[in-house]
Amino acid sequence: MKELTIAPNDAGQRLDRFLAKAVPLLPASLAQKYIRLKRIKCNGARVQRDTRLQAGDVLQLYINDEFFDKPREDNAFLTVSTPKLSIVYEDEHILLVDKRPGIAVHPHDGAEYGRTLIDHIQAYLYQKREWRPREENSFAPALCNRIDRNTGGIVIAAKTAEALRIMNQKIKDREMEKLYLAVVEGTPKPQKGSLHGYLFKDAKQNRVFVTDTPQSGAKSCQTNYRVLASRNGLSLVECELITGRTHQIRAQFAHAGHPLLGDGKYGKLDKRFDRNYQALYSYCLTFRFSTDAGALEYLNGKRFSVRQVDFVEEYFPDQKIFIGDR
Prior knowledge:
The structure is a single chain. This protein is of the alpha+beta class. The chain has helices spanning 15-22, 28-36, 117-127, 161-172, 248-255, 310-315; strands at 2-5, 40-42, 58-61, 87-90, 94-99, 142-143, 152-158, 176-185, 192-202, 207-211, 219-231, 234-241, 280-287, 303-305. It has six helices and 14 strands. The longest helix is centred in the middle third of the chain and has 12 residues, at 161-172.
């Protein structure tokens, strides 16, 4: 329990507004809950959230010590009162989450603390009491792979240090199959094939470029694909990443003359369709371990899929995607 004495400069404020400033890591909804449960008192008595504080008042706060820390990237999860996650699969070691487009996986320059995917995952595990940060010396639940803000799909989170180590190695060794769905302009030919090239990144422009021949600083890239359906000048394509370069699918299809629908960075926005971000989704993940996976060996051969993809339903409503494991 901590006590806070109201100074003259703090007097006259509503309790809830004072708490938002004095204890910024405590979510407003949780503060209201604690007020209702009498875990936040004023002068030893029950209080309302709209109570006007007076100089000399003493608040008694029966809340966890971590809420009194200063906001930082590593404790931003505390600001999440109700984690919003679409869970594809969960066990004691890992968590597979279907990330929706528009959500960043990590904070960028501290501007999005409390609103990123990792914040919601850590809040979820903290509230389940599966993760107790004050009992850990260094480990925190972490993401094993990343997806661009405006791309959706399956993200792997490790709940233990052992799972994080194993999964990172398996990703590095390419011992898993990642399938994406994309809507591209036109119809790629042949309808089943492979895109090969060399990709280099321009950090200043925050974009990548693909060439057909080796270039200094460029890395080889390969994407296998098959066309699932075509209509209205668009094609629904399933893509398999053989290499995992930045913006690989977006840049390679644009280079091949078939930019992704809604991708203003590597193509042009099509005015016929109300879409201003790329139609790309990491919809299916299969673990294909060729070497020992230790504590995660039970995952070998398992496949997981998301339940729905918005642009499939919008542009190809007759096309079914597989639901669940297969």
